[in-house]
Amino acid sequence: MFTGIVEAVGEIKQVSARQGDITLCVDGKGLSFADVALGDSIATNGVCLTVTSFSGGFFWANVSRETVSCSTFKDICVGQKVNLEKALTLQSRLGGHIVAGHVDGVGKIQKLSNDGDSVYVCIAAPEDLARYIAHKGSICVDGISLTVNGVKGNAFELNLIPHTAGHSTATTWTVGQSVNLEVDLVARHIERLLQFPQSPDTAKKESALSKDFLAQNGFLKP
Asked: Which of 57, 151, 170, 206 is least enclosed by beta carbons within 10 angstroms?
């Protein structure tokens, strides 16, 4: 799990393709590897990657064809800058929102402009993801936790403050560029729950939680 708070900007140093999968070598010198072990996760442009090897500030990771097909990794190239974040620990602050590192789809930047000190961004999301994107909700764009400031059809609007833009790849974004999107996990789970209405048997079943149970276990005063 991640928070969507970018820790460093890395650079792709090597891309090796094999039967639809790819292996990446990433320059992550901006990260501290003191607490990184083989098998740990590092979000790379919002994609949760497993560290298979690391040395001297570089790490290697395998990317499955499934991940390649639903992310911007299908077009990843040597020299590309990427946002990096190590996995969340129980001691970490949850400064952004809960991010799984499982990209839901690819959006396209429609508009970019200065808005006071911040940067206004409008992104078109795939039609099937639009229903999960809500005004003032959270969304992860290329690994960055951002707040949705407006929704128009399948497009949504964001404002990046100077700190967020300056500590991520957002400074290099251009109109027409593709970006990885991960929608709010809560929205997805609610939708899944609503797909399974209560059966008649379940509806008739009485809850084990009753006044007698609460009294017997000290939750109610006699």
From this structure: 206
Q: What is the DSSP string of the chain?
A: -B-S---EEEEEEEEEEETTEEEEEEE-TTS--TT--TT-EEEETTEEEEEEEEETTEEEEEE-HHHHHTSGGGG--TT-EEEEEEPP-TTS---S--B-S---EEEEEEEEEEETTEEEEEEEPPGGGGGG--TT-EEEETTEEEE--EEETTEEEEEE-HHHHHTSGGGG--TT-EEEEE--HHHHHHHHHHTSPPPHHHHHSPPS--HHHHHHTTSS--
**Domains contained in the chain, number:** 2
Its domain, for residue 114, covers 105-186
The pLDDT of residue 194 is above 80: yes
**Domain CATH for 133:** 2.40.30.20
